[in-house]
Structure formats: C-alpha cells, structure tokens
Amino acid sequence: MTESSCLLERDAALATITLNAEEKRNAIDLDMVQSLHARLDELSGDRELAAIILTGAGEKAFAAGADIAQLRDRRAADAMGAINSGLFKRIEDFPVPVIAAIKGYALGGGCELAIACDLRVAGRSAKMGQPEVKLGIIPAAGGCYRLPRLIGLGRARELVYTGKIIAAEECLRIGLIDRLVDDDQVIAAARSLAAEIAANGRAAVRMAKATMNALARPNEGMASSMESMAQAQLFESEEKQERMTAFLERKNKKKG
Ligand code: COA
C-alpha cells in the first residue's frame, strides 16, 4: 500500500482526507481503497473528532470512479468481495459525519463514494453521474439503492439507465449535492459546515448519525447483496470486457 494514495490532515476536531491520484482523476484502485481504510483506522477511536472532509486532489476530479484497468480484470468473486462497496459502507457508518468536498468529476464509484458521505458541498465545476452501464456493468457500490434514497427512484433510474453526466446546478436541483459554491470556496464551505457540526455535542451528533442511518436503511443487507450478485454476473460478461477494453484503448490511441 502506498501511504500517499490518501492524505490525512488533522486540525483540532476536524480531519481532512484527500484522494491523491490526480493524474488519473483520483480513480479508485485497490491501493487507494486500502489506503483510505488505513486512514479511517487512524481516526476510528478518536473521541475528539467531530467531522471528516473527504476530497480529491487537484481541480479536475473528486474521483472518476473505480480504476477501469483494474476493474476489467475483476471477476465474479471480486464483485462478491465488495471491495468498493465495503469501503463506502464503512464511510456511511463512520461514527462522525463525513462531508464530501467535490470539484470536477464525481463519476461511477466516485459518485457512489460522494453519496455514501453524509453531506456534499460542490464547486461549480462539479459533474456527477453513474456511467457504469456504458462499461457493461452497474453501479454496485450503493448506486442502485443509496442513490434512489437520496434523489428519488425516478431521477436515479434516469441517471443509472442513461449513464449521463450532469452539471453542478442540476446536481443541486435534484438534491445530489447540498451546497453549491465557487470552486475556490469548496474547502472553506465544507470546513464551515464541519465547524457548525463541531460546535454541537459530540455524542449527540454521533448518536443522531447512527439513529438516522438505522432508520433510513431498511433492508440494507439485502440491497447490497443484490447489487453484488448482479455485478458478479456482469463481471463475467463479454460486454463488460469489450466496453472496458474500448475505454482503455481509447487512452492508448490518444497517446499514440
Ligand atoms: N479508471 C482508470 N483511469 C482513469 C479513470 C478511471 N475510472 N478515469 C480517468 N482515468 C485516466 C485516463 O485513462 C487518463 O489516463 P492517461 O493520462 O494515462 O491517458 C487520465 O485519467 C486522464 O483522463 P482523461 O480521460 O484524459 O481526462 P478528461 O478530463 O478528458 O476526462 C473523464 C475525464 C473523467 C470524463 C474521463 O477520464 C472518463 O470518462 N473516465 C471514466 C469515467 C467512468 O466511466 N467511471 C466509472 C468507472 S466504474
């Protein structure tokens, strides 16, 4: 594991975790998954912690999804291993509120990561969507159940079936983000939200999060198992191989 895949900064009661793979739009590979788990391990027993800000390095992306080069080689057993969905569930269940601070693309697993967070602050450059079907797979790290809960089934269906990417204003309109600010204000706005939270009783906020999560998520286990089982079938499909290869070859053509 490369320690630098995720950076951790601590400032009094606030921690900031930065996904750090700017050159590939903070695409989430196995190394980043392990590194983010390690950062959460560092924070997990900390009673002074009030909130976490999760963001992406650079100006171009929060995260452009799972790393497609790795995804192409994953098989049914990997889907059942819930690599990204296990991490995102841990974030959703983390004892303190997690605020996603989004600039640029939050696509696929990047969008699912953002919606596993408690709140989302975005800059005007934000672009979000679930383009997985374009790659022959489904959003199986919460996109099929957290997204409908957040924005409603109709809007989630449209995003998931079309794979379209929507701009920041539209994200705000449909409730995919909570606050929209200029890009250079994203971290400041996330910090100010975190400060509002930190001013309150630590135990009360933690208990509020745990209670709201428990009450908002009937059938949680079944929902994520269904996603994994569906993805396991698609991970064995020719369609997935072809579509992911096409994405990766597009990249080679660009270089050649
Ligand atoms: N997995 C692996 N690599 C990725 C990636 C991903 N999800 N997203 C971006 N990258 C890489 C690109 O391959 C490229 O690598 P290169 O410099 O070695 O060629 C680099 O990041 C920059 O991406 P590029 O496409 O050149 O940047 P862009 O600004 O023109 O476009 C995106 C950005 C995010 C729109 C585009 O990269 C994209 O569509 N990514 C895939 C999004 C996706 O389908 N995510 C869901 C995965 S489940």
What does this structure look like?
- By secondary structure, the chain is α/β, with parallel strands linked by helices.
- It has a single domain, classed as 2-enoyl-CoA Hydratase, Chain A, domain 1.
- Helices cover 50% and strands 17% of the residues.
- It is built from twelve helices and ten strands.
- Strands 1-2-3-5-7-10 form a six-stranded mixed β-sheet, sandwiched between helices. A four-stranded mixed β-sheet has the order 4-6-8-9.
- α1 runs parallel beside α4 and α4 (83-93) packs parallel to α5.
- The mean pLDDT is 95.
- Residues 24-25, 27, 60, 64-69, 105, 107-109, 131-132, 135, 251, 254 line the site of coenzyme A.
Helix percent reads 40-55%
CATH-derived topology: 2-enoyl-CoA Hydratase, Chain A, domain 1
The counted number of beta strands is 10
Strand arrangement, largest sheet? 1-2-3-5-7-10
Q: What summary fits the major beta sheet?
A: 6 strands, mixed
Q: Number of domains in the coordinates?
A: 1
Strand content: 15-25%
Spans of at least 5 consecutive residues whose pLDDT stays below 50 are none
**Helix count?**
12
Q: Which whole number gives the mean pLDDT?
A: 95
Bound compounds, each kind once, are:
coenzyme A
Report the CATH superfamily.
2-enoyl-CoA Hydratase, Chain A, domain 1
Structural class: alpha/beta
Can you tell me the CATH architecture?
A: Alpha-Beta Complex
The gross shape turns out to be: globular
What is the N-to-C succession of helices and strands? EEHEEHHHEEHEEHHEHEHHHH
